């Protein structure tokens, strides 16, 4: 045997992968130019995007931020030579600079801007233990329970005893329920608790709170509903209606699937009636018909009326979305719950609802998004939401004729919120994924 | 949206909604039962005034959220006369659809919202028009390049027109009467109309003359467009109150008349203080309360008219400030001049 054989004893140094397989070029080969057909599509898409952007970007990038009127915008644009075939071309951002605060807060008194800001910041805090249950201490849930009473007080102001008294109704009802439940049974407890709470709210509430308010006058300066406007109005209506419509929707969905005839027919009737009527009709009922039916001089807050109508409307849709989730559950889940000896509410809470709600997440979130966008309909009954304000701003002779800038800005505001909701629902679906 | 345009849309829709109409009549009678608006306003310390949600020159919130405009000024004058504070007004923005129920149900004490005075509104809807603060009418705007100088030459034109309005009917009547034909381009709002017209989708844009002026003022090259001299409809716009509360109606009516009469008598915000010392002219003295007891008759004090005029000036000053020739809207007095100058403004005597 000779010693001619060669055995490499050391490793070769690692070499760079070919340029065409990694990095930007590799990615582009993989994703954009993986064949002649895809290459053509890529080139065409790039050309299309260029075409669109070359039209929009020069319009968007416009040095008109400091202009005080449409006329000034045009003078500035002509001065920098940005002139198209129909005269000066470019956006007039002066209107956004002058009016963006108004588009956010409407006519809310400017010294109190901290109140809505704080209300919505605290909203995030209150939502955190609900939305991100695994990342936030559970104790924050107590704050979430208090928040529904804090929110209206911050926005509308008034005596602190109003929200405290409203919350007291729940506390009283709960204690009555507990004490009756121990002695009789849970149904009697629920009825007794609800009746006491109602008596508190309807009879005792106003004399006691006004007495307390006189005794210890604590509170924030009141702000009238007419001063609400802009994005704040949309958010207020949207947040309250979204928050209330989910529990209401669950109750309605369960009612519709119930075996109790009266409960079932009431729920079916409600859902079908509300779904059969356009939201705008309900808003007109809220703004005009209710006014006529109530005795003259009654002051039933217009925003409250609108919120109630929006909530009813959304809860009917929510009920059907959740019923879809319930229907998708295999019968075995119900039977499994029964075989464990769980009663109806335990089964709903521990077995049925967690699964049904998980299935319904995309439907629930799109109902939320739809409801939030529907809040712009209130401009038709004379409330100045962002769209209503855009019309009012155009009525200022400085800004008459401005269309795209205002609508674009409003669309951007809405997009931020709707996109946020949609991303959250995707996160939630991934987190709750159990099908692997 | 331009003034009478909204009114007319409302009118057409109203005829369709029989039920709503019947209900509003029921509500109106309920409202009429609770009269004494003047006392309510005094007790409340605030006037609730229904205005448009936004109409160039007539009512619009400025950047600070203060309402400004020619209609708004009427509300302020009434508040000044009754409450001694022109800022004691809560402005309730109303749309063409909600305004009448807002007034009928008592949500507002008066409407100053470019509402055309018509028989059916006055009689059937049970409102009371307390005068006219602006005489409007439907007109035409065309590009100068079209080379048209009269509406009579518009045969065969394409016309931008808001749908479902009586403007549409006025237009049809006018063209038929003059044996001409036209092609309508239906549009929904005034903002859309501006865009369509500028893009050349139609040769002519027709709406109320004040709306046309405001629209034209917003164009980059306003000089390239002309408003034709023909006015083809009557749109007397004025404040209104509920039927059946004549004391309150009188207050609003005579506040408006005081503004008009002040201009006629040469009283303005500059010389008001001087005039209020007492003058040689007995009618001026009666108006300003240095003679007679006109204020007392209205249930107000003797200085009521002084305060109304102080709020923003006399009728002419308000006109110049909000919609006159010095403003971007640039309306000429025209029909809205004093009767002594060949217009229609004619305040009854203060006696």
Automatic annotation (TrEMBL), chain A:
It is a multi-pass membrane protein. One of its GO terms (molecular function) is transmembrane transporter activity. PROSITE patterns: ABC_TM1. Belongs to the binding-protein-dependent transport system permease family. HisMQ subfamily. The chain crosses the membrane at residues 36-61, 112-133, 153-177, 184-208, 228-254, 266-290, 302-322, 359-384, 404-422. Residues 231-425 form the ABC transmembrane type-1 domain. Its main location: membrane. One of its GO terms (cellular component) is ATP-binding cassette (ABC) transporter complex. This is L-glutamine ABC transporter membrane protein /L-glutamate ABC transporter membrane protein /L-aspartate ABC transporter membrane protein /L-asparagine ABC transporter membrane protein. It is found in: Cell inner membrane; Cell membrane. SUPFAM superfamilies: MetI-like. It holds the Pfam family BPD_transp_1. Keywords: Cell membrane, Membrane, Transmembrane, Transmembrane helix, Transport. One of its GO terms (biological process) is amino acid transport. InterPro entries: AA_ABC_transptr_permease_3TM, ArtM/GltK/GlnP/TcyL/YhdX-like, MetI-like, MetI-like_sf.
TrEMBL record, chain B:
Transmembrane segments: none annotated. The keyword Lyase does not apply. It comes from the Bacteria. SUPFAM superfamilies: Periplasmic binding protein-like II (SSF53850). Pfam families: SBP_bac_3. Residues 46-275 form the Solute-binding protein family 3/N-terminal domain. Keywords: Signal, Transport. CDD domains: PBP2_BztA. GO terms for biological process: amino acid transport. Belongs to the bacterial solute-binding protein 3 family. This is L-glutamine-binding protein /L-glutamate-binding protein /L-aspartate-binding protein /L-asparagine-binding protein. It comes from Salinihabitans flavidus. The lineage of its organism: Bacteria, Pseudomonadati, Pseudomonadota, Alphaproteobacteria, Rhodobacterales.
